[in-house]
């Protein structure tokens, strides 16, 4: 599975490095696009913008992409944000099947991954006075991930086996 923000370069890279992987547009990013359209149409902070965005978010969560697209197409000719969002949703349509992804137990948001990176990596590498080479950072990240995932002993067993063989 590859989670991305919907940018074409992300999917090109995913196709190259992980052919056949399920590709999912991060739900937060998709909702952010819709919220930006609402602000562009009705004005930042307006009740109409909040209501319109909530309806679109609910449609997106429910897999009602046609409803999302129809609502934006009403404004696409006169509003650049709506036009861009129509293109974004159309281009990423297969990557926005959120009910199907959830039914298969797949994560639809990068928030969990980002939080995991912050806990596993950021707290170790970003301490005061720390300076890392890429090689050193890679090594400590591997060890930290093994430790936090409960596989620290497995790591050392594999290392001992590799060195003795």
Overview features:
mainly alpha, 2 domains, 165 residues, two-stranded parallel ribbon, elongated, 2 strands
Short description:
The protein is mostly helical. 69% of the residues lie in helices and 4% in strands. It contains 9 helices and 2 strands.
Count of distinct structural domains: 2
Q: Which word captures the global form?
A: elongated
Q: Radius of gyration over alpha carbons?
A: 21 Å
Structural class determined from secondary elements: mainly alpha
Q: Bin the strand percentage.
A: under 5%
Helix content: 55-70%
| Assembly state | single chain
Overall pLDDT metric: 91
Distance between the termini: 34 Å
What series of H and E elements makes up the topology? EHEHHHHHHHH
Question: Biggest β-sheet, characterized?
Answer: 2 strands, parallel
Strand order of the largest sheet: 1-2
Fold and architecture overview:
With 165 residues, the chain is mostly helical. It has 2 domains: 2-103, no CATH class; 111-164, no CATH class. It has 9 helices and 2 strands; from the N terminus they run E-H-E-H-H-H-H-H-H-H-H. It has helices at residues 8-17, 27-42, 47-61, 65-76, 80-91, 98-103, 111-125, 134-148, 152-164, and strands spanning 2-4, 23-25. It has a two-stranded parallel sheet with strand order 1-2. Helix 1 (8-17) links the parallel strand 1 (2-4) and strand 2 (23-25). Helix 2 packs antiparallel against helix 3 (47-61) and helix 8 crosses helix 9. The two termini are 34 Å apart.
């Amino acid at each position: 599975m590859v989670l991305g923000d919907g940018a074409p370069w992300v999917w090109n890279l995913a196709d190259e490095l992980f052919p056949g992987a399920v590709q999912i547009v991060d739900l937060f990013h998709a909702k952010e696009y819709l919220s930006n359209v609402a602000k562009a149409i009705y004005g930042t902070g307006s009740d109409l913008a909040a209501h319109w965005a909530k309806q679109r978010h609910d449609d997106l969560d429910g897999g009602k992409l046609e409803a999302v697209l129809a609502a934006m197409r009403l404004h696409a000719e006169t509003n650049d944000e709506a036009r861009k969002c129509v293109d974004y949703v159309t281009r990423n349509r297969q990557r926005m099947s959120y009910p199907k992804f959830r039914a298969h137990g797949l994560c639809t948001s990068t928030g969990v991954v980002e939080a995991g990176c912050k806990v596993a990596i950021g707290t170790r590498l970003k301490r005061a006075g720390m300076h890392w080479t890429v090689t050193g950072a890679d090594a400590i990240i591997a060890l930290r991930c093994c430790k936090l995932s409960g596989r620290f002993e497995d790591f050392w067993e594999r290392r001992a086996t590799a060195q003795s063989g």
